[in-house]
Specification:
The complex is a heterotrimer of chains A (230), B (341) and C (420).
Chain A lengths: L1 H33 L6 H19 L7 H18 L9 H23 L14 E4 L2 E4 H24 L10 H21 L7 H17 L2 H5 L4
Antiparallel strand pairs in A: 1-2
Helix pairs in contact in A: 1-5, 1-6, 1-7, 2-3, 2-4, 2-6, 2-7, 3-6, 5-6
Chain B lengths: L1 H5 L4 H16 L6 H26 L8 H18 L3 H25 L4 H20 L10 E2 L17 H24 L1 H11 L1 H6 L4 H27 L1 E2 L1 H5 L1 H14 L6 H21 L11 H16 L4 H8 L6 H4 L2
Helix pairs in contact in B: 3-7, 3-10, 3-12, 3-13, 4-5, 4-10, 5-10, 7-8, 8-10, 12-13, 13-14
Chain C lengths: L1 H33 L1 H7 L5 E7 L6 H20 L5 E7 L4 H13 L4 E4 L3 H14 L3 E3 L15 E3 L4 H19 L5 E7 L2 H17 L4 E8 L7 H9 L4 E5 L2 H13 L6 E4 L7 H7 L7 E4 L7 H13 L7 H20 L4 H9 L2 E2 L9 E2 L12 E6 L2 E6 L20
Parallel strand pairs in C: 1-2, 1-3, 3-4, 4-5, 6-7, 6-8, 8-9, 9-10
Antiparallel strand pairs in C: 10-13, 11-12, 13-14
Helix pairs in contact in C: 3-11, 3-12, 4-5, 6-7, 8-9, 9-10, 12-13
Classes of the chains: A mainly alpha (230), B mainly alpha (341), C alpha/beta (420).
Chain lengths: 230, 341, 420
């Protein structure tokens, strides 16, 4: 019995870790390039989740298929935020950036409370409760799909860095594309959330999101990930 | 003494400060209880903002986990009262020592391993969260069921045991807030203050000048932690109930530094001005939004949207904080904090 | 010191109860018989200003707004019943004790005669202290932490069971369930959320189990973080115990996560028993559909057989067609009923008179399961009962006690795959 328990937990933990890892990658790309810790990252993910939810509800689009659309919209939002607000803060102290993003986070959470209400929203997918059984191993199908997608996007991201080799002096100019890559993770994170149906869009959970992501950045320091700066 | 801490301000500034103090000292006799309770919150944030400012504003070390020291103070004071009937004034030194010890441990880790800037801030968050979960399981002080202080109702004010009406707490907070302002002024004027500013502005240069930066950063962290714990004790006796979740949460850590950042980090008056802006701003927004007739459908969350918007606008347009700008506008002369820079 | 204090208020409380009992009963009886004429007389009073403080934003927004709907639905019902008009002044605690405290001061300064709130035990404690200081009565709608009514407060009343009572009733109802269905499980695994509410209920369960002589043994108790985003480990551990039933102490999110994991891990115990919110909530059933059928919750609830409940359900459906009434609705409604009833008997809103009238409350025609509403010396209503609620056909149904039931219990429940 314990063996079966551990086996299942390790596999499920790895799959979940893939998606969290990808989200952390998004944060660290921002930090690595513009030296800003995005304290509103979790809240921005939440926008992605609501978008995926709306696309599902009104266009019947499976969250896995809405990734490109959600990513594109969030790219636009991220770019606008960058151009209007964040660019003005590149030179100010850490705590000022932190305060600004904390303010943005408050706005996003409260607006989502007004627009969508406090109740949990969910997406009913045919495969939401499916699991794949291989011997003793029972794998959650939604988690498997999300994990696979996470690996795919991460691979694409690394390929991008291999091909373009962003140079240090270009750092600030390459914000746009970086934002885009980040948003891909965002969309993906959302998809995962929606898929496994635990996406309980309560404002209370969002700060925890932010915190979890932050810790991951600490662990996977951007220098370590990109291997460019020391 | 008075001259020392007013040294940085011109006569106009001194007059204004004295006037403000007089108004605040007399306020409870003229305003209703609601205003008193809001002013208590203002002092609470002003005090904590100042305590945090010693570490960040003076010595340049960013902490986003000050709820840790606050909570340790709160739980120490409450537990010693509930279990042994100890007066909060007697448990305060204990709370200060505990918070300083923990601050020292975190500081030592961070500074020895050269975890700087944002990473250091994350370290402080991690410690606060760690302690929150620890207290959730610490059943001697109630665990997640909470620690309740017995409330003796309607028995007058007992300053020694801090049992009594909000007005008593109002004056205790006022005295503490002003006392800390005096202390901060004295610190900045001292040799220690100059070392801190040197470290804040350029640590390698400070080190090159022979300043023991590790030692002075540690002093800042420990001082800040100890002073924060005092607020924790007082707050525990004001609210009479403690739960680990709200006490140690990152939300509290963020909340207690907002005022200082808005007012002006590194300035003497900044944290106080910030508290006087933010808390009344929140309350005014509540009052305004409640005037909007909405019927059954409530506009819950709208207040926070405007609050967040105000914070963002202040950051964008007053990057150094409101106080330096206000001091210029009111022609109040140099502020001590910036003087040393 | 505390003992002396309680003794004093105990004598005071009993004296008042005896003295006013007849008057209260007569008023209620008269109201039932006369209805409108009394209403006309009651209209002679100016409106009672009731401050309703609830966490309508912040992390408790969902449940705070559900509570608020209970207050909203109470206003027209109480008017129809002929109670004096209520002017509701609603405030948002933003899920924070700091804000709750300032809001209570503000409402009292603005002239409210009585305060109702505030769901969460921490915020309720903050408000209780203000009310006690200011001498304005507080009627707690929901909040189960026992300590709140153990402080010797003189202005605080709670018409909601303390957690030990909720658990005691759960044992009794479970025994009835096993007898009625003829199925007695041998083993039970306990899963609980590690927060104020979860630990106090779990503590009560552990303290009471030995004396209860239940057919099952609690084989393990598994705690989880209230912020958990994934309960697969916890559910896997519970499954590994091989227990025949799972008893959870949860809130909404974790209730959904636990069920979802049980389906995915293909674990089919005899049933999910629950002490606390979560399983009977709209969102639970909407999210899980067929998989949300059949869990049994042991909670304070409305009695579907009582006339006031029927009125409440009808009015709720009219005002909030997208939601269904639950325990939040009935206890917030009753809190306002208690205020209106006391106001009517006091014949005015002077705090002292209103408080004395509240202490003498004796409402028989209430909506919750149990023997009506009255308060002991501590301001606690010890007669609030609990019910066993089972989700049947997407609706929470009362299955026990038999007196209040509007459906028969289904136990053991059908497996996940046998639900169409």
């Amino acid at each position: 019995m314990p063996f079966e328990l551990y086996l299942n937990q390790i596999v499920s933990g790895l799959l979940t870790g893939l998606v969290y890892g990808l989200s952390a990658l998004g944060l660290s790309v921002i930090f690595g390039v513009v030296k800003i810790v995005n304290f509103a990252h979790g809240e921005m993910m939440v926008i992605g989740m609501y978008l995926a939810l709306l696309l599902f509800r009104f266009a019947g689009l499976d969250p896995l298929l809405s990734i490109p659309i959600v990513a594109l919209i969030l790219f636009g939002l991220g770019y606008a935020l960058q151009a209007t607000v964040i660019n003005r803060l590149i030179e100010v102290p850490d705590y000022m950036q932190f305060l600004l993003l904390a303010g943005i986070a408050i706005i996003i959470v409260s607006l989502s409370l007004i627009v969508f209400g406090p109740d949990a929203q969910n997406v009913q997918l045919s495969y939401a409760y499916d699991s794949v059984q291989i011997g003793l191993l029972i794998i959650d199908k939604a988690r498997l799909l999300a994990g696979a997608a996470a690996v795919g996007v991460a691979a694409a991201l690394f390929l991008f860095f291999e091909v373009f080799q962003p140079r240090d002096d270009l750092a600030v100019d390459s914000v746009g594309p970086d934002q885009m890559r980040v948003r891909f993770d965002v969309a993906l994170g959302d998809t995962w959330g929606l898929l496994d149906d635990r996406l309980l869009l309560q404002p209370s959970l969002k700060s925890m999101f932010s915190f979890g992501l932050l810790i991951l950045v600490l662990i996977f320091r951007p220098q370590g990930l990109l291997g460019k700066r020391t | 003494m008075l001259n020392l801490w007013l040294g940085g301000a011109n006569p106009r500034g001194r007059a204004l400060l004295a006037g403000m103090l007089a108004v605040l000292a007399a306020a409870p006799f003229f305003v209703d209880s609601y205003i008193v309770s809001v002013l208590i919150l203002v002092f609470y944030f002003a005090y904590l903002g100042q305590a945090w400012n010693i570490m960040m504003g003076f010595a340049g070390q960013l902490s986003l986990g000050h709820a840790l020291y606050f909570g340790l103070g709160a739980y120490t004071g409450a537990a010693l009262y509930v279990k042994f009937g100890l007066s909060p004034w007697l448990s305060m030194p204990v709370a200060i020592v505990i918070a300083m010890a923990v601050g020292a441990a975190i500081g030592a880790l961070g500074f020895r391993f050269r975890i700087g800037g944002v990473y250091f801030a994350l370290l402080t968050i991690a410690f606060a969260e760690f302690t929150r979960i620890l207290f959730d399981h610490f059943t001697w002080v109630g665990g997640s069921s909470g620690l309740f202080l017995p409330v003796a109702s309607r028995q007058g004010n007992d300053l020694w045991m801090l049992r009594g009406a909000p007005i008593m707490f109002y004056y205790v907070w006022l005295v503490l807030t002003v006392g800390l302002l005096i202390l901060c002024r004295a610190l900045l004027a001292s040799r220690l203050g100059y070392y801190w500013l040197a470290i804040r502005e350029d640590e390698p240069a400070a080190q090159a000048l022979g300043i023991d930066t590790f030692r002075y950063k540690m002093i800042a962290v420990m001082l800040s932690a100890g002073l924060t714990a005092v607020a924790g004790v007082l707050n525990a006796f004001y609210f009479n109930v403690l739960f680990p979740e709200p006490t140690f949460s990152i939300n509290r850590s963020i909340e207690l530094i907002l005022g200082a950042i808005i007012g002006g980090v590194g300035t003497l008056m900044g944290p106080i001005i910030g508290a006087f802006i933010l808390t009344p701003l929140g309350e005014s927004l509540t009052l305004i939004i409640e005037q909007i007739p909405t019927g059954v459908q409530k506009l819950d969350g709208l207040k926070q949207v405007f609050y967040g918007l105000c914070v963002v606008l202040i950051v964008l347009f007053q990057r150094a904080g409101v106080w330096p700008w206000l001091a210029r506008k009111l022609r109040l002369g140099a502020d001590g904090g910036k003087g040393g820079a | 010191m505390a003992t002396i204090d309680n003794g004093n208020s105990g004598r005071l409380g009993r004296g008042l109860t005896r003295r006013n009992f007849g008057r209260g009963a007569a008023a209620v009886g008269g109201l039932l018989a006369a209805g409108l004429p009394l209403g006309a007389r009651a209209q002679g009073l100016p409106p009672l200003k009731v401050g309703v403080l609830l966490p309508r934003s912040g992390y408790l927004a969902q449940i705070g707004q559900a509570n608020q709907r209970g207050a909203d639905v109470a206003i027209p019902i109480l008017r129809e019943l002929g109670y004096p008009a209520i002017e509701m002044v609603a405030g948002d605690t933003e899920s924070s004790p700091d804000v709750a405290r300032a809001a209570a001061e503000r409402l009292i300064d603005s002239g409210v005669h009585v305060v109702v709130g505030a769901f969460d035990s921490g915020q309720t404690s903050a408000i209780a202290q203000v009310c006690e200081q200011r001498g304005v009565p507080l009627v707690i709608n929901l909040a189960a932490a026992p300590q709140i009514t153990e402080q010797g407060y003189k202005f605080v009343f709670r018409n909601f069971p303390r957690s030990p009572r909720i658990v005691g009733d759960a044992f009794a109802l479970q025994k009835q369930l096993f007898t009625t269905t003829g199925k007695a499980p041998k083993s039970c695994v306990l899963m609980h959320v590690n927060d104020t509410f979860g630990t106090s209920v779990k503590g009560a369960i552990e303290a009471m189990t030995p004396a209860q002589n239940m057919p099952y043994r609690i084989v393990e108790s598994i705690a989880y973080d209230p912020r958990a985003r994934d309960l697969s480990v916890e559910v896997a551990k519970a499954k590994a115990t091989g227990a025949e039933i799972v008893w959870t102490v949860s809130r909404l999110n974790d209730a959904i996560m636990i069920t979802r994991e049980m389906v995915k891990q293909r674990w089919e115990p005899w049933g999910i028993l629950s002490s606390g919110p979560g399983y009977y909530e709209d969102q639970y059933m909407k999210t899980l559909g067929k998989l949300g059928e059949y869990p049994i919750s042991f909670v304070p609830w409305y009695d579907p057989q009582k006339p006031l409940t029927k009125r409440m359900l009808a009015e709720y459906k009219r005002m909030f067609p997208d939601f269904s009434a639950d325990t939040n609705t009935v206890f917030t409604l009753e809190a306002l009923l208690i205020c209106a009833d006391a106001y009517k008997r006091a014949g005015g809103a002077r705090p002292q008179a209103l408080t004395e009238a509240l202490r003498a409350t004796n409402i028989k025609d209430n909506a919750a399961v149990g023997d009506g509403i009255s308060f002991d010396a501590k301001g606690q209503n010890e007669t609030v009962g609990n019910a066993a609620i089972q989700n049947v056909g997407g609706q929470p149904r009362v299955v026990l006690p038999a007196k209040a039931a509007d459906a028969k219990p289904i136990f053991p429940v059908p497996g996940w795959q046998q639900r169409g």
